[in-house]
Predict the 3D structure of the following.
Amino acid sequence: MTKTYKNLINGKWIDAKSGKTFENRNPADWDDILSTFPLSDKTDVDEAVRSARAAFEKWRLVPAPSRGNILRKVGDMMSARKEDLARTMTKEMGKVLLETRGDVQEGIDTAYYAAAEGRRLFGHTVPSELPNKFNMALRMPIGVAGIITPWNFPMAIPTWKIFPALLCGNTVVFKPASDTPETATRLVEILIEAGVPDGVINIVHGGGSAVGTAIVEHPEVDLISFTGSSSVGKKISEAAAKTLKRVSLELGGKNAQIVMDDAKLDLALEGVLWGAFGTTGQRCTATSRLIVHEKVYDKFLSMLAESTKKLRLGDGLNETTDVGPLVNEGQVRTVDQYVKIGIAEGEKILVGGKRAGGDGLAKGWFYEPTILGDVRPQMRVAVEEIFGPVLSVIKVKSIEEAITVANATRYGLSSAVYTQDINNAYQAIRDIKAGITYINAPTIGAEAHMPFGGVKETGNGHREGGWTVYEFFSEWKTVYVDYSGRLQRAQIDT
Ligand code: NAD
């Protein structure tokens, strides 16, 4: 039976003021309506922000270790419900169970990291330039955090943002992607059960232009943490500038895997299959370009084509499926358009290149894993984010040329280099313009305790993950304590 969900505002589950709803469908079977959610608008956002603003005054005074204890409980509850959460996620966005289990695990790791951070949140003590004076800098909560997330990591990405936001003493208004509202709701239910007080976490469901824009423009929202496309990121940056909000943007990618002539080809093959077709290519860190040294190009491509043809498409709930459906019809259209652009640009389709049909696939958003060969580096399929199971392969003559090609996009999130030559590896680490470089590992595989983010149009310089995200969600307070009993003038009496 179709379940009806609500928004959570000030500790109460309520419908959108308008009474409108939207459907959440299974991308592996579009006739399968999983649940309905409130189609909210600015009125609902206003109420959620009021609730978060009021709750902030108490939450900021809760000691950080106590806030951490709640998040530890959240981690425990997520561990206990891991399988159920993974299945919910697979049903609403399609990726295979192996990966949705990993998505939940990333949330669990993030919860335990946040719990421990409650006993750190280190500040600095620094000598004063004047006698009998003490200087320190402390981390303070900021206020109401607007959290806007995409559908491709429906659990991990919200936890990357919400847990550090709460740990630092902020309150949250959360708008998840409308393709994955159920996983987001499950997360919020856990936060409430674990003891997050009323108003500290609020969830408002609905579309980006109505709910997202209302959060970004709201004068009482102090900071925005957004993950999504570069085009929406730019709009958010412009809108948030009007109220001078602090904004963290994690945006698109066009990640390359380089395979040098000295690489272990079997290892590089496993890497590119996982990097390009995992999550059906819908990862911000997906490998969408393969840059191969000319000496191994033909051999590696025939190995790759053979393995790609063997990948099994299907419902992600089936344990034997390698590649699930795309998330929705729009995504299928985008992928198909790019394949057509590739053909018009003169690229060679080596594998795939069309919507998949056949047993169990007829009513889902399935697309064949696709490889475009002999792609020239400046072509659209080589520089624009496709966000689907499409890999563009480019031939190069040297590590220098490989790095130049890898850098020839407006994105800079992840990168991978397969080589046995330490000189190639270090040159790549130094010269590839990306937030992340893997050596002998695929472009995907972020660990929760490491900084995550990119350069160029992939972001605006902030990092999620690890210790770095706590910089974003807290504000420095500088404190001078003068115990000399007299006026001391910095720069003058020194
Ligand atoms: P999207 O930009 O369409 O939407 C992201 C979120 O923003 C959704 O919740 C959406 O409803 C909301 N939104 C849309 N328009 C808005 C507006 N005008 N104002 C405020 N909010 C708005 O992205 P998507 O299709 O959900 O996700 C795919 C994109 O996300 C890809 O470009 C991918 O590379 C990127 N992504 C980046 C990272 C990263 O960490 N760099 C991680 C995952 C996904």
